[in-house]
Amino acid sequence: MTRPRTVPVVVWLIVLLHLAVMLGQTAVFPNVRSPDERQHVDLILQVRQGDAWPWPGPGTAYVTEGVTAGGFVEADSLDGPLHLADRQDVPPRGERPSYQAAGGPATMTVEVPDGGVAEPVFNQLVQHPPLYYLLGAGVVGLVPDWENAPLDQVWLLLRWWNALLALPLPLLLFAAARRLRLPEPLPVAAALAPLGIPELAHLASAVNNDNLLVILGACATLLVVRVLTGDLSRRTAALLGLVTMLALLTKGFALMFPAWILLAYVVAGYRHRARLRAATTSLLVAAAVAVPGVAWWVRNLVVHGMLQPHGTHATPPDLTPVHGWSDGGLTWLGRFTERMITLFFVQDHAAAREHDASWWMARVALVVILAGLVTALVRRPLRPLDALVLLFPVPALAGIVARGSWEQFAAFHDFGAAQQGRYLYTGLVGLLVVALAGAAVLRPLWRRLVPLAVLILAGGMHLAFQHDVWHLYWMPHDAGPDAFLRALAAVGHWYAFPSAVLVVVAVAGLALCAAVAVSLTRSALGDRPPDRPARLDTDPLVAT
């Protein structure tokens, strides 16, 4: 049961602003320009057609020719700016090719150098569980005769669906911060925090199974917060088990959920020793509900001999370590650390690793988050065990990523494999809430300014990010006085929905940003003292 009256109006405005930013990114980034987006869309379409259901085994699924109709740029790393404003070969809206017209389910092939036989392109994403793709296939089914509709429109519909998946994120952050009794207005600042991570908005505006896992991780974090603050009810345990089950049916990173939930209930049981039996019973309820998700990974062990098979090989590749630390381990570690930081906040679409404006802003945001974390852990506005449980997913996920990346380095001397900061987003809510808890030690007058400071930082992050993105994709080669207008016209021409839709999104986004800024400024400069912390048994989104 929800109680929306307990959520301030400004938080609802932030939710809508969050949505407007994500929908705007669907126009700024051309189709396929998100990690593995072409393969994600292709697998959804294959599930819709029945070609990928029952779920294919590793090394048996291929990218289809039809999916090429959805994009007009390359999916791989870019060599430099694309100058899309100079392109004249993109057909008018509504006249662009359909899935069937581009080849339908025929297997995509790539030419082999020196006259070799063309090879099929594997879709490695069958290594993941199928939940995200089943849901996506249901969305595609809403389009009548989708196979013969312009595929860029079907693609954009899937992008909008992904943005809607991420819509509740500010609400979940607000609810978690209030449940933890962070003093006002820090829960509002928590709701704003996702806007300070441009790469999160970009990922949420693209077709990617990370988006489902991220929102499930956010829901799990709120439920873990409830457990830590004394909610040992079976209902909360059942919800936590359900979220865990869905996450385990989405992506392998959810394998850290069982340990995380166990840790939360151990802490709660230790803290409420008189209710140890209730904590144990609830833990068992959560585990029982999560069983179907666990069963998928048990199936992998039985059928494939490993937890997660390699998507492109029916027989697992030989990953016997050949290289060690002396063969460049320090270089690998430096590259891993740098890329995980950069790609957590922004995206280097050219893979050039340039120290541009967005790269530097990523470091500014990192310093702010680290300062909040250190303050929270030293000054203890949160109970230390609560903070450690909430932070657990980030090092757990980082460890999983580091292990996979090192495995590739040790076997193939690959210095950059699997180094994506977005893989940490499943633990985003806990990370941001604990970091913002550090601001609880500020004097009330200064604390009142925190939401406005977060909004200003978010604005700076997005300005730097958009500056780099527009120069990489849209700005014409001839940077004359009308260059930006030509780039803007190109975005409108490439957009799959009518340009009026894009205008509405842009105007609404600017209006919402102004409304949020005015509201936060009035609160920061107002005479009313900050509200008292919410009671532990008060939750603005989930009834006790």
Automatic annotation (TrEMBL):
GO MF, any single term: glycosyltransferase activity
UniProt superkingdom: Bacteria
First-level EC class: transferase
Residue ranges of every copy of the Glycosyltransferase RgtA/B/C/D-like domain listed in the record: 158-296
Alphabetized UniProt keyword annotations: Glycosyltransferase, Membrane, Transferase, Transmembrane, Transmembrane helix
Transmembrane keyword on record: yes
The EC number(s) this enzyme carries: 2.4.-.-
InterPro entries: RgtA/B/C-like
Keyword Transmembrane: yes
Pfam family, one: PMT_2
Listed Basic and acidic residues bias regions: 87-96
Listed transmembrane segments: 7-28, 160-177, 212-229, 241-266, 278-298, 360-378, 385-403, 423-442, 449-465, 494-518
Region (Disordered): 87-106
Signal peptide feature range: none
Protein name, UniProt field: Glycosyltransferase family 39 protein
Source organism (scientific name): Promicromonospora vindobonensis
